[in-house]
Amino acid sequence: MRDDTLHHPALAHHFDNLEQQAEAASLGMWVFLLTEILFFGGAFLVYTVYRHMYHDAFVVASHELDVTLGTINTAVLIGSSLTMALAVHAAQTGSKRLIQLFLIVTIVLGCVFLGIKSVEYAHKFREHHVPGPYFQFDVKYVREAQIFFSLYFVMTGLHALHMIVGIGVMLVMLWHASRDRFSPEYYVPIEVTGLYWHFVDIVWIFLFPLLYLIGRHGVP
Amino acid sequence: MSAHIVSKTTYYLIFATLMVLTLVTVLVSAIDLGALNTVVALAIAGFKAVLVVLFFMHVKYAPRLTKVAVAAGIYWLMILLALTLSDYLTRWRGTYG
Hints:
The complex is a heterodimer.
Chain A: H1 18-53, H2 55-62, H3 67-92, H4 96-126, H5 142-178, H6 188-213
Chain B: H1 8-29, H2 36-56, H3 64-91
Helix pairs in contact in B: 1-2
């Protein structure tokens, strides 16, 4: 009997074993994340250049953001990274119940983050801080402040979009977990989902100080 | 799969450190350090990111090939930032603080 008929059901035929398959999958995910690093890197670069050119306006505009909500959201997202890491741990130790529990908690925390974010967005709309014909700001900085708020909406919006995708992926993982697809021998989809979620967390770790905190000490 | 399993204690410790650093970065941002405010904020964010990458994302225990890939990504990001900023930051006399 050929022994390749006896392999683990999750092992693809072009891999020697599950370990090689897992290493390939996580390396592949990292290669994707590298493109994401450069994608967000470009946005951070644009932010830095404009902040350099219109420093005073950026300080004043940055004061309009709610530091308290931003701090709470940072804590929520870091908490969701912890529960994601614990979901991977549960997969490694083969506890289906804990995989499901921690994925659900991570999804809920992700939704809390998006909820707080939408409260902030609504506030910006009410204050006429959305770039466009109805934008209102200190006349001295009205032009430059629109650049700040454009960057604010694009960068936090792209970040939120990544979170929505992450939540969608976690829902798929939840479905797979309920069908007993994962075991201590095969849990690479959970691991890779974790990589993506932690990456999104890292983007926020940089967005938070750059948008909310830098310039907070300066008097507007 | 014989991957290294990071203990739950490690995860809790990293989480606690990240939370403390978040608090520190918020508190420090209210103090006027001049140009150092930006440096401190980015240093804290960078350190937090390193903790997430090494422990939550398991790069500390990953195969060497993965480590090289991650390093290459950061290296290319640095090229993007350094070469562009070496132009813009020397063309305008920006005011930092």
